[in-house]
Amino acid sequence: MRDTRESRLLLVLLIAIAFALITVDIRAGEESPVDGARQAAAAVFGPVEEGVATAVDPVANAIGAVRDSGERHNRIATLERENAALKAKLGSEDLTRSRIHELDEMLKRAGAGQYGIKGAEVIAIGAAQGFSWTVTIDAGSKDGIERDMTVLNGDGLVGRVTTVGPDTSTVVLANDPDFTVGTRLEKTGELGFATGQGDRALSVQMLNGKAKVSPGDRLVTFGSRGNKPFVPGVPIGEVVKVDPSRGDLTRTVWVRPFVGFSRLDIVGVVVMPPREDPRDAVLPPKPEAPKPTPTVTVTVTPSGTASLAAQPADD
Fold first, then answer.
1. Which residues contact 254 (CB under 8 A, 6 or more apart)?
2. What is the dihedral sign for C-alpha 35, 37, 41, 44?
3. Sign of CA dihedral 269, 274, 277, 278
């Protein structure tokens, strides 16, 4: 449009009309006379706006995703680190609880037998010093450990010390084929000798061939002269099989050891023997057998009235 006097006048007139319509629309509110025109314009231009938004929104979303991807990556990495730390914490807490339980059980056994013990941790397993079933513990001569001392844990007899260094010691386990310990049967006091059989039950030769032994009976250490290598009263295991008596001077029984030799962790070395034989005091009490549930029997006896009712009427 050319810049003339008439065009300027027309522009001023259109601006004045626009302000007038805006004023009328604001004052009239919902009853505005231009509402119909607004709806008509929305019907005409609405689809055009929607199409433009549909075309533009994916581009805008993609730009936003790219902009936020770095922040999301950092958030995911942070969550992964937090999860890993939480798992490690839970694992360490479970291990701590387990070791506290082991230590507590070992102290109970030591207290029951009046043993003075030095706690130690198993730091290595495997053949050493010519023995096939051994472990290495982190206690040595600096800790008062000497050769031929008894080693136990919360379950019972672990073995005996064979080699001592300044900071570590080697322990031969009770299931080693070259391991032999004197035994005493719970209650009856029958004596025998237990020999390791590797990953099988211990073999025990009872000195009395006619000794009454049954599965479930338990054995403890008999003890050695001078309490080395074994102090008395340490739980060994439970009888699982008894060979039939053939009139021999001795009798063989098979004993499952209380100690799990494949999962040793915390052990105690007896550095001070008991003043007297604890006998069966170190053995935990046997669980009570479940009491049978009483059975109630109800007997129904026909009443006299019912018997009379069953008779013929003419009687």
1. 201, 202, 203, 204, 239, 240, 241, 242, 243
2. positive
3. negative
Give the up-direction half-sphere exposure of residue 160: CA atoms within 13 A in the CB hemisphere.
19
Q: Which two tokens stand for residue 177?
A: 């084929």
d(CA 246, CA 243): 9
Q: Considering only CA atoms, which of 250, 256, 270 is closest in space to residue 209?
A: 250
Q: What does the buried/exposed string (b/e) look like for 21-43 if buried means 16 or more CB atoms within 10 Å of the residue's CB?
A: eeeeeeeeeeeeeeeeeeeeeee
Torsion of CA 67, 73, 78, 81, to 10 degrees: -170
pLDDT cut 90: percent of the chain above it: 49
Reported in sequence order, the residue ranges of 35-156 that DSSP labels E, i.e. its strands, are 116-125, 134-137, 150-152
Neighbours of 222 (CB within 10 A): 21
Q: Per residue in 97-126, pLDDT tens? A: 888 888 899 999 999 999 999 999 999 987
DSSP letter for each residue of 236-280: EEEEEEEPPP-S-SSEEEEEEESS-GGG--EEEEEEE--SS--TT
Q: Is the pLDDT of residue 49 over 50?
A: no
- Rounded to whole angstroms, the Cα distance separating 232 from 223 reads 4
The residue among 177, 155, 178 whose CA lies nearest residue 264 is 155
Is the pTM value of this prediction over 0.85?
Answer: no
Is residue 149 a contact partner of residue 164, using CB atoms and an 8 Å limit? no
Angstrom distance (rounded) from CA 26 to CA 287: 91
Q: Note the pLDDT of residue 19.
A: 62
Q: ∠ CA 285-289-292 to the nearest 5 degrees?
A: 155
